[in-house]
Amino acid sequence: MRSVAHPLFRVFLLAVTLALLAAACSSSESDEAADAASETTATDDETAADQTEASESSEDPTTTSALEAQPSVEVEGFGTSPAVPEGFDPALAEALTTIFGAGLSRSSFVTSDRQSLDALADSGDPRVAWPLSDIMRFAGSGEANEILVSAASSVTGLSLGGPGAWGELVDHLIAWDIPAPPDYVDYKRSIFTLVSPDWDPFFDDKATEVDYRHWSWGGVRIDARAFDETDQPCNCIPGADNPDVTDADGGDWYEDDRVVFGVVINGEARAYPRNIMEIREMVNDTLGGRDIAMPYCTLCGAAQVYYTDQLPEGVERPVMRTSGLLTRSNKVMYDVTSWSVFDTFLGKAVTGPLAEIGLQLEQAPVITTTWGEWKAEHPDTTILDESLALGRDSDLLSTRDANGPIFPIGDVDPRLAVQEPVLGVLSADGTPIAFPVEAARSALLDGNDVGFEDVSIKLSGGGIRAVGADDVELGSHQAFWFAWSQFHPETELWTQDAG
After folding, report:
1. Rounded mean pLDDT of the chain?
2. How far is it, in rounded angstroms, from Cα 123 to Cα 107?
């Protein structure tokens, strides 16, 4: 018996189309998410074989293992994964191309047929759950979504349902490390560019290190405004360029016990209030004579600063923007000048012309503290002007994000709680090290030394920072444990006993 039943598959396709277009055009959803958190059909066996050969030779990390058999495994907290069969059925490849291929368009999402979706649902191949999950993210909660949920349940063995079905599905796919099907990036491009054509260049680079399986929509539209045009309103999370600042006395609008992200470059100090960063999420600034970009990911509690000057000859200053996309609950940022995507957590270009030259941005230290403690130690500090809050007062880490990640992250290193704040740093030899913030700060206040290998932790401005040999500043920053550990899976963890 078919696992997906629906009398008119074209009705299903039309319903998904309408949901996709509504997602693309909804300004109210984008505003809420800014507070709260986006080829040719194989016609015969010979063509399918050619496609399989191309997939086997691809360097794309989402498909290099797509044709290898994968046995069922038990993953703590996620149960037993479904087995992945060896190879890939040419009929399945044809069904995927029929549904998700290059023929997809904003005006017509009726190029597929009932038989193709039934083939996916009946295949027993969990790899097809990835493109199904991508459409589920946009399909809303109506009948179209129910059809997709049924198909995804069939191929994964999960009992999916309710408003959390998409997140539950993707969490399991990540934790189980289910490979993507061949040509997955092309299918994902077709789906995502229905919502925003501006995302199209992000899928161009087939040699990228990006794991496209983990990309999802964060619920907002892309910020595609050019440099220094951020005074123009946008239906997006509105980054800020060259923000207005005041002196410490002018910052009396911000209560002393509220959180700031403090940065000192070449002796010049500046405080970035968390409530403004939750609204802006991206600032391109100049401090201490250096150009910088400061992404803030509310979802992973991480404010970082990257130098965007002193680059290789011929490279124009990257101007960072919020793409509206996420990867394992971390914002995906991009340079609006070159349209190169950067790994926000690592500061490395991963697609586009800046990835081709292997651009890696240097990171400056960021101290998470309170406004009162920061200005007491840095009386000459400046602070972002209150006007940058756009009349709002956001405090997501005390409301929306208080109970854990709201987007899929998969399995997490169990050594700490998922939202335990850590100070993350790379040692001189590149070893990632995490210091639980409260434990490290408490030990320092008690007069104890805190360090790991050649890294030492110091009290600074009410927070903590990391230094290396000869007290050389290291680009440390605070983040939730789940975020630091998933982007640095080999991280060392400082404990009081080890320290």
Report:
1. 85
2. 29
Residue 491, pLDDT > 60, answer: yes
Please determine, for residue 344, whether its predicted confidence score (pLDDT) is greater than 70.
Answer: yes
Q: What percent of the chain has pLDDT over 90?
A: 70
Backbone angles phi, psi at 408, to 5 degrees: -60, 140
Confidence of residue 30 (pLDDT cuts 50, 70, 90): very low
Spatial neighbors of 335 by CB under 8 A, at least 6 apart, are: 318, 319, 320, 321, 342, 349, 352, 354
